[in-house]
Amino acid sequence: MSTSTTSASPPGTQDPPDPPARPAPRRGLRRSLRRDWQLYSLAVLPLLFFLVFRYLPMIGNVIAFRRFEPGGSILGEQWVGLRYVRMFLSDPTFWQVFRNTLWLGALTLVFCFPVPIVLALLLNEVRRRSLKRFVQSVSYLPHFLSIVIVAGITLQMLAVDGPVNQMLGWFGHEPIRFVQEPGWFRTVYVGSEIWQTAGWGTILYLAALTTIDEDLYEAARIDGANRWQQTWHVTLPGIRPTMITLLILNIGTFMAVGFEKILLLYNPLTYPTADVVSTYLYRAGVESNSFSYAAAIGLFEAVIGLVLITTANQLSRRTVGTSLW
Predict the structure, then answer these.
(1) Kindly report the CA angle at 261 between 258 and 262, in degrees rounded to 5?
(2) Which pTM value belongs to this model?
(3) What span, in angstroms and rounded, lies between the C-alpha atoms of 93 and 111?
(4) Sign of the C-alpha dihedral, residues 295, 297, 301, 306?
(5) pLDDT in tens, 180-209
(6) Where are the alpha helices (DSSP H) in 210-290?
(7) What's the Cα-to-Cα distance from 301 to each of 87, 214, 280, rounded to whole Å?
(8) Counting beta carbons within 10 angstroms of the beta carbon of residue 200, is it exposed (0 to 12), middle (13 to 18) or buried (19 or more)?
(9) How far apart are CA 191 and CA 154, in angstroms?
């Protein structure tokens, strides 16, 4: 009977333990660029766009503190400090257009922001796909129209002899001068803005609705929740991050109410309620050649926008835990 013996290593001669595994070296920037240069090349044009049309023009803000004369130096001829800032702060016309901007910005935010949410919730409840596609196509169409066309349709519809006044005439009402009356301009602008942007704004919310887990609705139905309770406790919390993100972006553009549409819709008769900071800048800078004065107002508007979006982002982060950065 043979017995197998194993030779044991004498004490002190055991093999050393294996060294710990070293972390894989990070791929260098050059190697990453060589490997994924096709992906990085896609970002070249967007970066160039923002560099040329967003960041380089910021250098021109220096003329808000220098006297600029057409035909002279592009950065101004003489340093004047806060002269133009004091000029617009003491100008009663500026404060009138500033109030108009706040009014139109607030009305646009209050009425235009919730409409896409409501429309997306209603479309989400539609079960007939043909009807849903028809409503989506009709509501999306105004977004693809030029602002010039939208303004032209609005002016034609609300003219003294337009379809709206003709319908009012059927009920014995006198024609209303929607386009010439200052009191009607805000209603006209906000209404046209809702008509043009509501359908397109539903796209993001409809996409967010598809990410909500169906098991949550099933659990809510088991607990006895009706359709309204499911919407309130399941649907709205599910799209809340999207709502907060878009709300912060809208607050950031609070002061930049639609320059093109207002410029096409307003006239000297409606200046008391229609003239906003952007249109006032256009008349002061382009038509009156007061570029330094217009640059000072534009810089003031940009600072207010930066403060608004930063404040909204911080409040959103502290209250609901969702923010842009």
Answers:
(1) 80
(2) 0.79
(3) 27
(4) positive
(5) 899 999 999 999 999 998 888 898 899 899
(6) 214-222, 227-230, 236-238, 240-252, 259-265, 271-274, 277-282
(7) 15, 45, 12
(8) middle
(9) 10
